[in-house]
Amino acid sequence: MGADRWPHLPSRQVPQFKPEAALELITRWIKNEPFQPYNASCTAPPAVPAARRASVSAASKRSELSSVEAQIAALQAKAGALRKDLAD
């Protein structure tokens, strides 16, 4: 995926290791909203409202919980199969 595919978003401006900026970029992209203009004099991102931070971390926790519950279900099924094999 080169810069020719994303001419409005040069690779040198993609937020790497900057989760707040990445969230802002992806959110605007998904909602088909215009991107924030590049500001060369910016030294820090604007503060993210606490409500938005909380919703992101809650969504992340829900996702992790769902993944862990799926792993537990898979392990329980495997344990049941092993118990059955041992009983035979």
Helices and strands, with pairings:
Layout: H1 19-30, H2 50-87
Summary keywords:
57% helix
Describe this structure in words.
The structure is a single chain. With 88 residues, the chain is mainly alpha-helical. The protein has a domain at 64-88. 57% of the residues lie in helices and 0% in strands. The protein contains two helices and no strands. It is rod-shaped, with a radius of gyration of 22 Å.
Contiguous helical run count = 2
Overall strand count: 0
- Which structural category do the helix and sheet elements fall into? mainly alpha
Helix content: 55-70%
Shape: rod-shaped
Overall mean confidence score, pLDDT: 78
Order of helices and strands: HH
Rg calc? 22 Å
Main sheet attributes: strand count, strand direction, barrel closure: none
Unreliable stretches (pLDDT < 50, length at least 5) are: none
> What fraction strand?
under 5%
Cα end-to-end separation = 55 Å
Brief synopsis:
The protein is an all-alpha fold. The chain is 57% helix and 0% strand.
